[in-house]
Amino acid sequence: MRQAYGEHTMNSEARILIGFDGTPTAEHAIREAARLLGARRALVVTVWEAGQAFSPLNLPISGLEGAPVTVDVRTGLEVDQAAYETARQLARAGARLAVEHGFDATGHAVADDVTVADTLVRLAAETGAAAVVVGAHRHGGLSKLLLGSTSSAVIERAGCPVVVIRGE
């Protein structure tokens, strides 16, 4: 079965890229995407920010004001490894949920050195994804204007169709 979407075509063999952050909105997006798109291959991606433990705001440091500051690199590495493991577990949980809803899915945790949206768009291009599925968190009024939106950025930058599923 083939359906045309602009320059792109979606067929039952094409892989769908699903952004998954473990929130109820992301879980709802998987369920709705399965209902809308039917059984197909999917790559469930959780993006994590590598090196966040070494950000100046998050560094585990010691020292008194005016004294030399020492950085606990071992603790930073442990925190970074824990973040990676959490992302892997989230990706696997998302893939399990996708399988429960009919997708032939695998999960993958990806380190983010740019924005989540840019990472998803890059992965979609690299894997030849037929579409990207993301959940949209609802923001009202002023916060919608001030907050960046991953789903809006993916829509703007992706070279394939984007399915945005609003939260329940």
TrEMBL record:
Alphabetized CDD domains for the sequence: USP-like (cd00293)
Domain UspA residue range list: 15-166
UniProt xrefs under InterPro entries: Rossmann-like_a/b/a_fold (IPR014729), Universal_stress_UspA (IPR006015), UspA (IPR006016)
PANTHER family noted in UniProt: STRESS RESPONSE PROTEIN NHAX, UNIVERSAL STRESS PROTEIN UP12
Family named by the database record: Belongs to the universal stress protein A family.
Protein name: UspA domain-containing protein
Organism listed in the record: Amycolatopsis albispora
Species classification: Bacteria, Bacillati, Actinomycetota, Actinomycetes, Pseudonocardiales
